[in-house]
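Why do we bother with a discrete structure alphabet at all? Because it lets us treat a fold like text: something you can write down, compare, and reason about line by line. To make this less abstract, here is a complete entry for NPH3 domain-containing protein. Read it the way you would read a sentence in a foreign language you are learning: slowly, and without expecting to understand everything at once.
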Amino acid sequence: MQFPLVSRSGRIRKLVEEHRDSDISRVELMNLPGGAESFELAAKFCYGINFEITPLNVAQLCCVSDYLEMTEEFSKDNLHLHAEQYLESIVYKNLEMCVEVLQQCENLLPHANELNIVSRCIDAVASKACAEQIALSFSRLEYSSSGRLHTIRQAKCEGDWWIEDLSVIRIDLYQRVITAMKCRGVRPESIGASLVNYAQKVLTKKVDLVSTGHQKLVVETIISLLPVERLAVPISFLFELLRNAVMLDCTIACRLDLERRIGSQLDIATLDDLLIPSFRHGCETLFDVDMVYRILVNFSQQDDGEYDMDGVSIFESDSPHSPSQSALLKVSKLVDDYLAEIALDVNLKLSKFIAIAEALPAHARTIHDGLYRAIDIYLKTHKGILDADKKRLCKLIDFQKVSQEAGAHAALNERLPLQSVVQVLYFEQLRLRNALCCSHTDGNHKPVHHQSWRISSGALSAAMSPRDNYASLRRENRELKLELTRLRMRLNDLEKEHVCMKRDMAKSHSHKFMSSFSKKIAKLRFFRHSSSRGSSSPSRQSYRADSKVIERTCASIE
């Protein structure tokens, strides 16, 4: 019975030779990889019992044949050779089979690692995934009508069917697979989709004391595997990871990394994303305001410093490296909505409310209606607030930037301090006076409009960033130049009319025509005379205003 095993297994042969002189009837094999099931397969091979090598048992056969030394050194055409040939010719050429083998290797460590079965399967998976993406990209190339080669836009993660397959392997092996894929050049969007799928499979399972530690490991590993590219994963997934990281007490480095990533794309977040419950013991507030504050600081810091690069003017709003004004506007509206939500919390301290409101730069808000609404809700919820604290809150509002509806509401709001109400009434009076001037000025409404606009712009310039101040001056210049162009066109029309009247006068010498001609000439002379004096001509005023703005623009640039 022992002869076939002895002839094919070098390990068993050595054990038998060592105990030849003793009456030992049993040989003990310690730490046999795969246990009794693997030994049964090896024994079947030795005794000529046919069985099929599959992806589910080939890793066992490799490990047990190596352990029993069933190699060509002791017998030709041995088990180890058959298992290796199956791996090389079949498994490593098929991504699904490689994943199945990896799953079987989980119970065969460290032997599977020592035989490089795991590393070879991982390399095969990464290579196949990368090759499929390259092939898909080439298949979507086509020539346009102009003869130029372009790529047809493809659906997100199209062809990444392997994403679902990878969700079944253990987290340590999954980490090695994703790392290999990054090195091979697999698209960041595909990596991100795989991470989202894996996290959803693991984190939605029922939680107990044992699985809590496993989920913590999964969250920390997935955070470390996140692609560096922006928008590679949905921002809602980043917020979900952050909630789990806080709840599972993951490392501070993981949480800070997530906060930095969220801050870099905060402009696409929603209010529900920001409403993160407080998981810390002893925290009085309903939501984690401190975490949102850190995210806003990350957004503001990348807004101020990340895009300031050598050779790029920081004043050019259309520069690819300059901060997006639209992103600032979106985040400011998001913050105002968030303030309105947390203002309902009676335990929210005034200092934290103000810190959130001031986390963005002053020029981020072009309209202060949302901020006014949030402050009004806070005052309504915290009725016992001191007058000094009310003044601190209302100093956050620039009443020049509230709409007419919000200003009317603020003027009758008894919760506001008297100083704020006076400011509202004063600015509403200025707005009404400017509106009346514009409506009652006949023909010269444009210069009045520009003048009032410049006053408003100048009053707000202190609260604007240098980039926005520069952009407003450029817009002001363009408007004034357009006004000069309109005046020149009006003058050209009058000159054409003069030529036509001279032509008509040559044809007709009637008294009626001469009378009308004299009146038109008088008007023309008056226009030119007043234009040459520069006393009350709108074109001269506009030209001088244009010159002043140009001088001021040049001075600001210098």
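What the structure line is telling us, in plain words: The radius of gyration is 39 Å. The mean pLDDT is 79.
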